[in-house]
Amino acid sequence: MATASVGRNAWQELCAHTTVRTLEAKQAPRPVVCINADATVRMCMETLAENNILSAPVVRGREILGFVDVIDLMGAGVRAFCAGSPGEETRCKAPQQRIPVDEALFRSAKFFQTKVVDLINLSGLDFPVTVRNEDSLVTAIRLLSNVGKPFFLHRAVVLNDDEEVAGILSQTDIVEWLREHLDQLERAIPELVTADIYKLGLVHACITLHVDAPLLNVFSVLFDNRVSGVALVDREGRLVANISATDFTGIIPSLFPVLQESALLFLTKGLQSLPRAPVTAQPHATLREAVTSISIAHVHRIYVVDRAARVLGVISLSDILALLCDLAEKGTPAAKTAD
Q1: Cα distances (Å, whole numbers) of residue 17 to 139, 160, 170, 189, 253
Q2: Cα–Cα distance measured from residue 65 to residue 120, given in angstroms and rounded to the nearest whole number
Q3: Measured over all CA atoms, what is the biggest interatomic distance in the chain, rounded to whole angstroms?
Q4: What distances in angstroms separate CA 174 from CA 18, 138, 146, 158, 225, one per listed residue?
Q5: Which CATH number fits domain 2-330: 3.20.20.70, 3.40.720.10, 3.10.580.10, 3.40.47.10?
Q6: How far apart are alpha carbons 296 and 289 in whole angstroms?
Q7: Domain coordinates of the chain in residue numbers?
Q8: 136-166 per-residue burial string, b: 16 or more CB within 10 A, e: under 16
Q9: Angle between helices 171-180 and 317-330 in degrees, nearest 10
Q10: For residues 326 and 141, is the Cβ–Cβ distance under 8 A?
Q11: What is the pLDDT along the chain (339 residues), one digit of tens a residue?
């Protein structure tokens, strides 16, 4: 018992003494691209595409107003291009039925002249938060774990000692750090690293859509459910692909007509390259296997499937960070209750 306590204390100390600066130093230098608050949607999309990124902080001078990402832009586009009353929220009640589109709006520049400041965090996935170089890993984990928060966070702006933007810290960065320290975690809490994903409460219900679902409907589901990706399945529920914000890297106004295509056709053609096969795990995969898979593949989620490739659930970066938050603060994962 004393040995277990020592191991947990050692892990907590490691997290407490690791700083955001340490995580940033391990990464290749990444210039921070910021979007001016006065920029239009068109200008923002072109900037994201030129830099091959999904999101960027929106600033006015030195003030950080928030983030804007591809989901914000595409979600606003879905609302603008779908037929209906002005200002009426477009919701996809039947994901397999095609949403009517006002073709004239695809030729109109009105939406693309919208000020990007009006779209900040429209998706509810990236509220404006900051961390500082000297903040501990525990602080960063607590911030990005989304535990007990009424909103979702995928990334935070890193400020230097002069309160200037120095970098972006993402959930991916923290899970990468965890993967590199799995051996230390196993020495500290051996039963945890080898525990299976269901016992740890990491797996939750997954949103699925048929591969032929219209792309407009896919975005409606992403937007309404405040998620950045969904599983595409065949008629038997077998996993075919993952579609997420990453698939829209490089989207610019002239490519917006792709919204009229089916999800399968879009993924087959791709904006930049053919999509990767979705990353999967078996129901009895361990924490080590799940963390290693999601980190090495550099994805935001892995799907849990049975032997017939039918989707059973999903594990996201937020799920792993929630577990890591308990470990960093208490030395043990919180008890999970069945939904």
Answers
A1: 11, 18, 19, 18, 46
A2: 8
A3: 71
A4: 11, 10, 13, 14, 24
A5: 3.10.580.10
A6: 11
A7: 2-330
A8: bbbbbbbbbbbbeeeebbbbbbbbeeeeebb
A9: 60
A10: no
A11: 455 566 678 888 999 999 999 888 777 677 889 999 999 999 999 999 999 999 999 999 888 888 898 888 887 877 776 644 333 444 444 444 454 555 555 555 678 888 998 888 776 666 778 899 999 999 999 888 876 665 677 889 999 888 888 889 999 999 999 999 999 999 999 999 999 999 999 999 999 999 999 888 888 888 778 888 999 999 999 999 999 888 888 888 887 777 778 888 888 876 655 667 899 999 999 999 999 999 999 999 999 999 999 999 999 999 999 999 888 777 666 544 333
Tokens standing for 239? Answer: 């996993």
Q: What is the pTM of this model?
A: 0.85
Burial of 210: CB neighbours in 10 Å, binned 0-12, 13-18, 19+: middle
